[in-house]
Amino acid sequence: MSRIIIKRLVILGPSYKRTLPFIDGLNIISGVKTSGKSLILRLIDYGLGKSKKFNMDAQRVLDMHCDTIYLEIGIGDEVFTIRRHLKKSVDTVHLYSINLDEIDDYIPLKKSLRELNIFLMRKLQISEVKLVKNKARSADKETQIISFRDIFRYVYIPQHELGTNNFLNNESVFKRQKNPYAFEVICKIIEGNRNEIQEEIAAVENQINKLVNGKNSVYQYLVERDEEDYAELIDKKESIERKINSYNYSKEEVIANSQLNKNKENELYVKLKNQIGNLVDNIYNVRREAGRIQQRIDSKKYLISNYSQEIKELDMTIEANYMLKKWEQVIECPLCNSEVTRTNDEYEIDMSRTELVELKKEKTKKIDFAESIIAIDTEKVRETEIEIDYLTNQKNIFEEAILVFSKKTDVPFLSEINTLNKLIIELQKELEIVKECLRVHRNISEKEKEIKSLDLELIRLKRRLTTLNIEENKKIEIFNFLDTQYKGFMSKFKYNHLEGTYIDRDKYVPFHDYASVFEHESGGLLECMQIAFLCSILSGKQENMAPGHPGFLLLDTISKYLGTIESSESDGEIISDPIVYDEIYRVIIELSSSYQMILVDNTPPEKYKKYIRYIFLDEESGLINLNLNEI
Asked: Which of 11, 131, 338, 511 could form a disulfide with 144 if both were Cys (CB 3.0 to 4.6 A apart)?
């Protein structure tokens, strides 16, 4: 059973950073108005692909301090981190297949919001459904997709929807029409389409091929640098880091000793050190230039490979045209009854063959040109290697000379620090190259994980082909279970008259007293119906009755329509708001043993304060709290 767990939210700006961890269970965010409580849920929603851009005009403090968010989530045994900008490039996200602490060592995948939707659906093992609908005021058809964002309306209930008739964004005609299908996807009762699934299978197979090609391409990068061994790279990285630490320690010792005036100035020593530093810089620059030339050679080789393949295909086409035989047909003249022989016209074939030969010559010329460039660049690489050897020998000579010199001379601490800094910089450059190779290794590992995940998706889709239509008995079983759960929760919320209380089989919305959640007017009743409905779906996930639900809830301000002060008077026929409020918490706490819940509530009951994760007191001590700045 795949479900999403929100692990950490990071809000980041040029000079501000705050990390908010969450537990797998109940998390309550409490505090006063305008302190940023609801903003946390909105940022989580944004990180999970909400298309609407953040209105920074209404978020003055956030706009002042933050421009990026990171959202770390768990799905099954995997952890992912999503990075998304708040002000620019808002239509894309960067996805890391690793936790927040390790993202610097990984190359992220850039995805559109649509691609993020597909990724989340696949990780949750949910299939998108395409609907063919009539366009408004037109006989034309259009395709609508039931995506992760449609299902997410059954996860995140914003403050302006909870306890109102705008539940599930019902006031939006576009979203209202999609909600029943989203419910069917959640409960897996929607009927599939064979062609659709076959198209999806083809798309997954294409994506696997693309990933395999991409993996092979980046692996070639490692082959060319003789860095295929991951363990060897790790050892190299640790060795360089040890050297850097050793030089840093030596630098600290020099600074400490300098206070005792143990070093004396020596002009020759400084000159030798400067020479070594210049040689180190020159070696680095020559190596970088050699790398650029090698990349150019690799690019030309790739072009030659493509041209050679095209020539091979042209040869086959020319040969096929050459083998075409002229056909003859004997026909009888209807006027004189004499026989006439008719042959096909070879002009087009001859012209086609001529054009193909010309095209082949053109490709051959391009290969010759590319090979001439490769020859020139190969010679340049050889020359750079000779130059590197020469510079390295020079550096070794100077280092040997300065080693002998330093044994006889007390040197100034400034010169020593300068030398150590040069050595540290050189090692840091080497370390960055090693880290880049490690990132490529991890990128290959991520691609392999994604290929494995898509292989499983392929198996699931092929299995789905064999079980397209859900049995009617299974549908009845699902609704019986959800109805029982819904009535049970409504009863706990002190609505004991359950006649007319059910989940409608056609509209897939909760009813009470024969009226739907969109028809009642009492905010308290609406909130109870909505929470009971969502909790029944969440209970159904555990029993495989709602396997398509992401498996967590975000509820904003559950005390909005319920009184929280207990009255001494009680009447069996009158619902006491504080008692209902307490029962809602009991239900949520019970479900939070299996699922994550993140609630915004101004003043939760005293006995549930142990579940409070964050308390925001005012704007300055709210979500943006400069006293908790991690930078």
From this structure: 131
Q: Say which residue the tokens 């490769």 belong to.
A: 374
- What are the structural domain ranges in the chain? 4-112, 125-191+472-549+552-594, 233-440
- Indicate the angle between helix axes 267-323 and 194-224, nearest 10 degrees: 130
Q: What is the pLDDT of residues 118-135, one digit of tens each?
A: 999 989 988 888 776 666
Q: What angle do CA 500, 503, 507 make, to 5 degrees?
A: 115
CATH superfamily of domain region 4-112: P-loop containing nucleotide triphosphate hydrolases (3.40.50.300)
Residue 176: predicted pLDDT: 92
Residue 112: which residues within 8 A CB-CB, separation 6 or more?
91, 92
Contact criterion met (CB below 8 Å) for 495 and 487: no
The runs of H, that is alpha helices, within 259-346 are 267-323
Question: Rg of the chain's alpha carbons, rounded to an integer?
Answer: 35
Quick one: tokens of 520?
A: 């009642």
Helix extents (H) in 470-522: 472-492
Whole-model pTM?
0.64
Region of 510 please: left (phi>0), alpha (psi -120 to 50) or beta: beta
Pairing of strands 141-146, 328-332: unpaired
Q: Which one, of 365, 234, 230, lies nearest residue 304 by Cα?
A: 365
Which tokens is 308 given? 């050679």
- Say what the pLDDT of residue 389 is: 84
Q: Is the predicted pLDDT of residue 571 greater than 60, yes or no? A: no
Residue 501's CB is within 10 A of a number of other CB atoms, namely 19
Instruction: Please list the alpha-helical segments (H only) found in 5-57.
Output: 37-47
> With contact defined as beta carbons under 8 Å apart, do 99 and 77 qualify?
no
